[in-house]
Design a protein that fits this description.
Strand content: 15-25%
InterPro entries: ATPase_NBD, ROK, WH-like_DNA-bd_sf, WH_DNA-bd_sf
CATH class of the largest domain: Alpha Beta
Protein name: ROK family protein
Family: Belongs to the ROK (NagC/XylR) family.
Number of helices: 13
Organism: Sphingobacterium litopenaei
Pfam family, one: ROK
CATH superfamily of the largest domain: ATPase, nucleotide binding domain
Helix content: 40-55%
Structural class: alpha/beta
Oligomer: single chain
Number of strands: 15
CATH topology of the largest domain: Nucleotidyltransferase, domain 5
CATH architecture of the largest domain: 2-Layer Sandwich
Number of domains: 3
Radius of gyration: 22 Å
């Protein structure tokens, strides 16, 4: 019982950083004497350490406390996307302990994907055994039920359907899972540009176009927990099939997948570009890395492909502004790397498609969080754990 209460305090210090006893009391809704006694117990157990004094508010300066990253375990992060898995190891301050490992996958080969996850996870656990791991956090696209620990986008026979249960059996660690866009929204709300914002929309711009909805500083999940399928709003003009099998989805014109398809089509037509040597590449993750580098070097075709995607994305965001009237819209995910070009295109599209009275007070911003996918996976492990003490 006390471990669960201590876990609440640890979560508060993780998501909000160093705090005074009064601030922790306000954060978790417990009295100051109870918090003071609990903090002392956590100090005695070495989970929490003093962090100087808070700024003066006119009276005596309050002592602040923070987590002890040397005592509290680390998180093995697994971030799954359409064409690759990114695995990492992070401490309780979201600081990377190793260089992220990027693993290419065939999205239709569930057994091989599962095998790759187990092999690389075991390798990380064995190689870096001086870094104790308290849990594994997974983010993945799809219809994820985080409470049941299943991804309903897969059949029940697939090892990726109940991935947490299987990994817990194989790796002997607690495992937690969340939809990637929802997890990124949680990370942006606590550590990024959505912090201290009541109503915000976080766009996860990747191979699709995910959406996390923050209402009254809480993640909005909808009736079945699947809110945010922004990719499949029927706004596209092109007569192309989406990955879901339908036509007209926003994803076919406003995703990184669509930008790469457009660029490759132009290259095959003879367009001059730094990306020409990669036109026949089947490795989409590698092509994306090449696209980011070409964009940074000012490659005109790369810039044009991103601008085209950005304008259509802005049209979709205009629709969201009409429906939800957010304070902020934050472009996050892999696509945030193109922020300097995306932002003016999105704003231009919003000017065209959105009623000014609604859009003029909504700010469009680009995420400033590095490694957002893996940080989001770490957030999942901390947020969903019901006991951050037992495995330490």
């Amino acid at each position: 019982m006390m471990d669960q209460f201590y876990t609440q305090i640890i979560k508060s210090l993780y998501f909000s950083g160093p705090q005074s006893i009064a601030e922790i009391s306000n954060s978790i809704g417990k009295s100051v004497p109870i918090i003071a006694k609990s903090i002392q117990s956590l100090i005695d157990q070495n989970f929490v350490i003093p962090d100087g004094l808070r700024a003066s508010t006119g009276g005596r300066r309050a002592a602040a406390y923070k987590l002890n990253k040397e005592k509290i375990g680390n998180t093995l992060t697994i971030s799954i996307n359409r064409y690759s898995i990114i695995m990492g190891l992070y401490n309780i301050f979201n600081e990377p302990l190793i260089e992220n490992i990027d693993i290419n996958i065939n999205q239709f080969d569930d057994l091989t994907i599962y095998h790759s996850i187990v092999v690389y996870a075991e390798k990380i656990i064995e190689t870096y055994n001086t870094y104790p791991i308290f849990a594994i956090g997974i983010t993945t696209p799809g219809f994820v039920d985080s409470h049941k620990g299943v991804n309903n986008s897969y059949s029940k026979e697939s090892p990726l359907y109940d991935l947490p249960r299987r990994l817990k059996n194989d790796l002997k660690l607690d495992v937690y899972i969340e939809n990637d866009s929802s997890a990124i929204a949680i990370a942006e709300k606590n550590f990024g540009k959505a912090k201290n914002t009541n109503h915000s929309l976080i766009i996860n711009l990747t191979w699709g176009v995910g959406l996390g909805i923050i209402v009254d500083q809480q993640l909005f999940r909808g009736f079945n927990g699947f809110a945010g399928e922004f990719s499949h709003i029927p706004l596209a003009d092109e007569n192309k099939l989406c990955s879901c099998g339908k036509k007209g989805c926003l994803e076919v014109e406003a995703s990184l997948e669509s930008a790469i398809e457009y660029i490759k089509e132009r290259l095959k037509e003879g367009e001059v570009s730094l990306l020409a040597p990669h036109v026949e590449s089947k490795d989409k993750s590698q092509f994306l890395n090449s696209l980011i580098q070409a964009y940074k070097l000012g490659d005109q075709l790369s810039i044009h492909g991103i601008k085209k995607m950005g304008f259509m994305l802005g049209k979709g965001i205009a629709t969201l502004i009409h429906i939800l009237n957010p304070e902020k819209v934050i472009i996050s995910g892999i696509g945030a790397a193109f922020g300097a070009i995306l932002l003016p295109e999105i704003q231009s599209s919003i000017h065209i498609f959105c009623i000014p009275r609604l859009s003029q007070r909504t700010s469009i911003e680009i995420s400033n969080l590095d490694n957002i996918q893996t940080i989001a996976s770490a957030c999942v492990a901390v947020m969903q754990s019901d006991n951050l003490i037992k495995n330490q």
